[in-house]
Amino acid sequence: MVEAADAGLIGVRDRALILLGFAGAFRRSELVALDAADLDFSRDGLAVTLRRSKTDQEAQGRKLGIPYGANSETCPVRVVQAWLDAAAIAAGPVVRSINRHGRVQPGLRTWPAWSRSWRAAPGWTPPSTRAFAQGRARHQRGDRGGE
After folding, report:
1. Who contacts 115 (Cβ-Cβ below 8 Å, separation ≥6)?
2. Which fold has domain 2-141?
3. Which of 30, 102, 105, 145 could lock 26 by a disulfide, CB 3.0 to 4.6 Å apart?
4. Is the predicted pLDDT of residue 64 greater than 50, yes or no?
5. Mode of pairing for the β-strands spanning 39-42 and 45-50
6. Following DSSP, what letter does each residue of 78-121 receive, concatenated?
7. pTM of the model
8. Predicted confidence (pLDDT) at residue 116 exceeds the cutoff of 90
9. 3-state SS class at 60
10. Phi-psi bin for 122: left (phi > 0), alpha (psi -120 to 50), beta?
């Protein structure tokens, strides 16, 4: 699915969101709500602070660790850092639209600007990716889901 992302800045953004979304099993709303301040890079990987989610209506927040991947092309930590660097994002929203001239729009959270990457990968949607990531985690733990 990552190969389906466009080339250039749009592709860098889309790959970052696909890989981060899968690695953290994030909901679409959680990805769109991320600010640069919510991302803490370290030698161990990336700590993501979710300020609010569907299951956290009181906005208590939680931190989720994302480790480095073995392959630099599919490592969510490296690819998210590449997006932030390429787009010169030091503060504000992580998810931003890119105009037709290839300029990243400041302070603009948008999901539709990214949704075309999902159309390039038939059968995959943000919710199905979250479900796949959760299913994979259950399988790795040996949880057979009631078998």
Report:
1. none
2. hpI Integrase; Chain A (1.10.443)
3. 30
4. yes
5. antiparallel
6. HHHHHHHHHTT-SSSBSS--B-TTSPBPTT---SHHHHHHHHTS
7. 0.74
8. no
9. coil
10. beta
Q: Report phi then psi at 17, rounded to 5.
A: -70, -35
Enter the tokens of residue 31. Answer: 């990805």
Edge-to-edge strand order for the sheet containing 62-67?
39-42, 45-50, 62-67
Q: Average pLDDT of 85-112?
A: 84
- Run of H or E including 49: strand 45-50
Query: Encoding tokens for residue 55?
Result: 């299951």
Which tokens belong to 126? 């943000």
Say how far apart CA 71 and CA 17 lie, in whole Å. 17
Q: Which residue has the tokens 């990531």?
A: 133
AA identity, residue 114: W
Q: Pick the closest to residue 84 from 41, 25, 125 (CA basis).
A: 41
Task: Give the residue extent of every domain in the chain.
Answer: 2-141
Banded model confidence at residue 147, pLDDT cuts 50, 70, 90: very low
Q: Which residues pair with 60 in a beta bridge?
A: none
Which residue has 């709303």 as its token pair? 29
pLDDT of residue 111 exceeding 60, the answer is no
Question: Structure tokens of 107?
Answer: 């302070």
- State how far the Cα of 26 lies from the Cα of 134, in Å rounded to an integer: 10
